[in-house]
Structures are given as C-alpha cells and as structure tokens.
Design brief:
It is a single chain. With 70 residues, the protein is mainly alpha-helical. It has two helices and two strands; from the N terminus they run H-E-E-H. It has a two-stranded antiparallel ribbon. The two termini are 18 Å apart.
Length: 70
Amino acid sequence: YTGDTGALAEHYPDFQQYVDYLAQYSEGHLLKFGIDDHKQLQPLNQGDYLGSAYYFRMVDLLGKMAQVLG
C-alpha cells in the first residue's frame, strides 16, 4: 500500500451506483437473487443467501472506502 487514494476516488462513484442499484432490489437489505458469476450444475446453496452476503460485503467495503476518502 502506497497511500495513493487515486484509484479509490476514481472508482468510488461507480461502486456507490452499483450498491444503490442492489439496494433498490433488496427487501430488508436482503437480496432476492444471486449476484454471483459461477453457477453450479446442482444448486447446493441458495443464491439469495450468497447474494445477500456479497451485498453486505460490498456495503462494508463502500463504507471503508468513504472513510479513507474522507
């Protein structure tokens, strides 16, 4: 890590827009669809559960990016 926040500043608006998009389609902050890019031949887990976990992670990362950017 070099302390250069240029990449964060450049991509933050796009990341924010994607998180806002997902928020529009969530119910109680839970997604009702998977946002993963790997599909199994036989579903072993629910896409809703994984999608919500990734959504939570993205919201968490967005908050950390905001803290760094001030």
